[in-house]
Amino acid sequence: MKKVLNRHLFTNVLGLSLLLFSTSFYAQEEAAATEVVAEEASASGDGDPVKGKQLFNQNCAACHALNRKMTGPALANVETRLAEDEGLDREWLYTWIKNSAGMIASGDSYANKIYAEYNQAAMTAFPTLSNQDIDDILAYTAAPPPAPAAATATAESEGGSGEGSGGISNEIILGALVLVFGLLVIMLFLVNNTLRSIARANGVVLEKAKAEKRVPIWKAFAQNQFLVLVAAIFLLLGSAYFAYGWMMQVGVDQGYAPVQPIHYSHKIHAGNNKIECKYCHSSARVSKHSGIPSLNVCMNCHKSIYEYTGNPEGPSAEDLANGYTNEFYTGEIKKLYKAVGWDEENQRYTGETQPVEWVRIHNLPDFAYFNHSQHVSVAGIECQTCHGPVEEMEIMYQYAPLTMGWCINCHRETNIKVEGNEYYEAIHAELSKKYGVEELTAAMMGGLECGKCHY
Amino acid sequence: MIKTFGKVTFVLAFVLVFTSCFNKNSPNYQYMPNMYESVGYETYEAVDNGLFPEGTEALLPAENTISRGYMPYEFENTLEGKELARLQPSPLDSLQKETNLAKGKELYDIYCAICHGNKGAGQGTLVKREKILGVPSYDDVARNITVGSTYHTMYYGLNSMGSYAAQLENEEELWQVAEYVMQLKEDLTK
């Protein structure tokens, strides 16, 4: 299983690097093309939309989108709309962008109206933007440069076919093997039959006829006491082995992967976007539990990220096969909005919330005590040591068996972290002298005492 | 011949039945469930005995109560409050600056760097991947952040940025991050 996973990973990485290469190649062409456009634009005396896009993404995009309300209003064609609806010119925009708070204070009617309309969220002043910069941004909002859609589309299709062929070729190989195997079996039968017929034709008496006179094999077996004894021993050992194995897995939930109310992908969050585990599971640092993050933590980012746009290279063939399309993930974000009561249209909370009934995966029996902060903050153990490669898990599952033997084993093998921990200094010096070792394991520090976990 | 086939399939089926007992969508059997399962409520446990308004053990703090060690924050979540907070110095011991900055860096890398970038220039992973845009650099002249305004922003959030008071443990951690942010700003303006 693990090997197969790795192989997939390898092909993915290969595909990805190929994609990156191809997109960068396309991007260069694209950049060259847009440069020409930019030159034309600046020649005509207006703002430069390409530079404007850069400035927009740097300065405005935190609160504004082109075609969508965010913290602030949508900005597509803002200049023409303002001129037509409110009779405000570019000068008004210059003043507003450079010092919106001052304009509100001076009693400008439209400034106050928009301030009230957007929950009194003050727009940051941008005195550093020159008039030319603002012209550029306005040019971008009026006519955003065409997205390099064609380039990415071709890259996607290339990547898709490449990965697809990789998957298919595996299946073809397997199919071919099965076919060859089947043919071999058939050939064996045929050869056997022809040999028999040849033998019969030549008048050779087949052994089968002779065998009939002999004692049946099971009778011979039953008469041989030694064989019966050995067989009985093997049978008993074998069944004991299976019975033991079965009994040992009772109460062990390794591999448990329940269906969650919201399809949260750790692979996208922790893997692709490299968000720290402790960003969401912040209580793992300071408390016994690594809590399920409350929804306000989700909204830290998902206030801005309202749809899933996927990796730049588009969904992989594997994701598509599982139905994990961009629309699917966007739907899951909408589920979050519903639970937390976020009104996307008006960008405010409705106050109508409902708890998300997450299904707990890791659950120690009641008689065992475990403290996350002791392991995460004091010992400095990586989350992945116990929870496995979470950053690769599309669906979260229990990686470790979480049995006592597993705990004890780690306590025996892991050296305790003493750096920067005054609490351990004295006892560490004392115990390392007692045991005559440089590095103490958790077991030597009392990590095997019953009362540490059972009381 | 057919008999042996029957026996082999029987054994295989037997093995299969025992190994396939585990369904990954539901938890496994337990030996003595009353030793495994807590008598008291477990964290986040769903309880439908009518005692809990939302049907879960997890509750909001009772109204008009404060948590242990809570200190009120004197500035309001308004622009005026922010301007007043701008002048507030950090209450942390300046002799412990290095420890505080080290701790601040650790926390900053977990909670802030994903958007603001490790150097505070607004180039975090999410920005580079164009998931969240428009994250300002700390040395932005117009914003002119101070340790007090940074604290205020983390405490209440600002526009698109949410409040981080819940993810950071206490006031001390918030101040440690704020001090580290000022350190980053200094490095950026250099």
From TrEMBL, chain A:
Record SUPFAM superfamilies: Cytochrome c, Multiheme cytochromes
Boundaries of every Cytochrome c domain copy: 47-145
Signal peptide (UniProt feature, chain positions): 1-27
PROSITE patterns attached to this UniProt entry: CYTC
A Pfam family hit: Cytochrom_CIII
CDD domains named among the record's database cross-references: Cytochrom_C3
Gene3D superfamilies associated with the record: Cytochrome c-like domain (1.10.760.10), Cytochrome C3 (3.90.10.10)
Membrane-spanning ranges: 172-191, 226-247
Keyword Membrane attached: yes
Keywords: Electron transport, Heme, Iron, Membrane, Metal-binding, Signal, Transmembrane, Transmembrane helix, Transport
Repressor found in the keyword field: no
Domain of life assignment: Bacteria
Single GO term (MF): electron transfer activity
Protein's recorded name: C-type cytochrome
Lineage: Bacteria, Pseudomonadati, Bacteroidota, Flavobacteriia, Flavobacteriales
